[in-house]
Amino acid sequence: MTGIETLLNGFRKFHEMYFGKDPSLYRDQLRHGQSPRFAVVACSDSRVDPGIVLQTEPGDVFAVRNVAALVPPCEEGGHYHGTSAALEFAVTGLGVDHIIILGHAHCGGVAAMVRKQEGGEVGGRFITAWTDLLRVARERALQADPGLSGDALLRASERQSVRLSLDNLTTFAFVREAMAAGNLSLHGWYLNIFEGDLEVWNPKTETFEQLS
Ligand SMILES: [Zn+2]
């Protein structure tokens, strides 16, 4: 089955699982509002659904998904800032305890940025403007290891993109204030879904450490 019926059947299955087994979860507990402890910034990539990968339940995670799991720097002005607005609400409205940047291997958004920096063609003016925000990630990867190229440079740029988004989070005053008050922690994770691995950024050792 490949058509839209797949999703409608999916809803039937969801209804059976959640309303058949525990009708009170939605009807009573979640009806009156949400109080998730986690905000996750993940890529829109269909293979890296945070709810599946992190095995969460309804009400656990405030999810922000965009191309390349990217947090832009704080920017004033009359533009539309969907990711910044979602994070503002997560921190100031919901009071989440943690923000997790969930980058991933073989990310098309990071690959588009690297391709453009190397003189290649990248289609889509919205995509290009967005992924250009990640240029520094490739530069940092090459600073750390000037010999990188090809797949190794892509993997290193993906990990550096997670770090860049962590840096960009702290350009928002509401993030800095919540951290200073001891109410918010930031986390950078790198998912290699193809190997079933998750790496966790350790700011003390400045390395990504594979979860055992
Ligand atoms: Zn991606």
Task: Please provide a written account of the structure.
A hairpin with a 4-residue loop joins β5 (about 195-200) and β6 (about 205-210). About 45% of the residues lie in helices and about 15% in strands. The protein starts with a helix and ends with a strand. α7 (about 135-145) crosses α8. The protein has 2 domains: about 1-35, no CATH class; about 35-210, 3-Layer(aba) Sandwich (Beta-carbonic Anhydrase, Chain A), CATH 3.40.1050.10. The protein is an alpha/beta fold and about 210 residues long. The chain is globular and about 55 Å long. It is built from 9 helices and 6 strands. A 6-stranded mixed sheet has the order 2-1-3-4-5-6, with helices on one face.
Entry summary:
With 212 residues, this protein is α/β, with parallel strands linked by helices. It has helices at 5-21, 24-30, 50-53, 82-93, 108-117, 125-131, 135-144, 150-169, 173-180; strands spanning 38-43, 61-66, 98-104, 185-192, 197-202, 207-210.
Topology diagram in text:
Blueprint: H1 5-21, H2 24-30, E1 38-43, H3 50-53, E2 61-66, H4 82-93, E3 98-104, H5 108-117, H6 125-131, H7 135-144, H8 150-169, H9 173-180, E4 185-192, E5 197-202, E6 207-210
Parallel strand pairs: 1-2, 1-3, 3-4
Antiparallel strand pairs: 4-5, 5-6
Helix pairs in contact: 7-8
